[in-house]
Design a protein that fits this description.
Elements lengths: L2 H4 L2 H10 L3 H10 L9 E7 L2 E7 L4 E6 L1 H5 L4 H11 L3 E6 H6 L1 H13 L7
Parallel strand pairs: 3-4
Antiparallel strand pairs: 1-2, 2-3
Length: 123
């Protein structure tokens, strides 16, 4: 049994935030504190089995930052997960670590563009 199997979803998300990749941290610094006009959350639990890298609740936008494991181990799993999230009304954007680290402003512009193209939810 792995450590993630023993942790509560809340503790697991907290652990993911503490151990974020350089790309996740870079993107978070650009999106935090509503610098874009949209509020984002890190390592947010969508349901009891899904924690996403970044989430904008106002427009139901999920952002995933994909490292090496997504290129090999999760190539079948990611599309199925994205499809399920889409069926639940979320828009999923995926960016590679390299995109985030080497083209940060372009990635942020894509995210803001996606946010602006979606209807804002009332709370």
């Amino acid at each position: 049994m792995s450590d993630s199997d023993r942790m509560s979803p809340k503790d697991f998300a907290r652990n993911l935030r503490r151990n974020a990749t350089a790309a996740e941290n870079t993107l978070w610094q650009e999106l935090r504190k509503t610098q874009t006009g949209y509020k984002f959350r890190r390592q947010h639990g969508i349901d009891d089995r899904t924690i996403v890298d970044l989430y904008c609740p106002a427009v139901r936008l999920v952002i995933e930052v994909d490292g090496e494991s997504h290129n090999q181990k999760q190539e079948d799993w990611d599309p199925a997960r994205d499809k399920r999230l889409s069926q639940l009304g979320y828009l999923v954007l995926r960016f590679s670590n390299e995109e985030v680290l080497n083209h940060t402003s372009r990635v942020v512009a894509s995210i803001v563009n996606a946010c602006e193209g979606r209807k804002r939810r009332a709370y």
